[in-house]
Write a structure and sequence with these properties.
The chain is of the alpha+beta class. Helices cover 36% and strands 25% of the residues.
Length: 159
């Protein structure tokens, strides 16, 4: 192997690794499906059962590198499997991402005005502390003052 082929080999390894990581990450379609499944559960089984199921880190609403969370239109986090400490706050409206975006304010405003849509921001992957680009789908439960959200990480993502 000559010294000119080493950079090519390293580039090939990095590309293969990034594609493998991208395949393992949640997709846009999956987060929409999971949000609608959670909304259906809230409608059929009630808010208490939804809080229990969505809060469960080993439950059906945690998969790959994503999860569903549940909030109300007042900005109260009702269920968050990866950061349950957020549910202890009166509201999360003052929480910002590393560049100062009041992401939960965006979530509440979107749910209240449009019932569903997407918000881009920075947030760490589960188990990590370094923020990554993320886009989250917000879906308001029809006829209720609750909404669910779930997102996927954009870095290295193919969608």
């Amino acid at each position: 192997m000559n010294k000119n082929s080493i950079p090519k080999l390293i580039t090939a390894i990095l590309l293969i690794t990034s594609f493998a990581i991208a395949r393992d990450g949640a997709t846009r379609e999956e987060v929409v499906i999971k949000c609608h499944e959670a909304a259906s559960m809230i409608t059929s089984k009630g808010i208490d059962e939804a809080i229990k199921q969505i809060s469960n880190v080993h439950g059906p609403f945690v998969w790959k590198d994503s999860y569903v969370f549940l909030m109300d239109l007042e900005g109260k986090m009702l269920a968050h499997p990866m950061q349950p400490e957020l549910t202890k706050k009166k509201h999360v409206l003052l929480v910002t991402d590393p560049v100062g975006n009041a992401i939960f304010v965006h979530f509440v405003n979107l749910a209240a005005s449009s019932n569903s849509g997407w918000v881009d921001y920075l947030w760490p992957r589960p188990g990590q502390t370094t923020p990554t680009k993320k886009t989250t789908y917000i879906y308001r439960i029809p006829g209720q003052n609750y909404f669910v959200g779930s997102g996927f990480y954009i870095d290295g993502m193919m969608y």
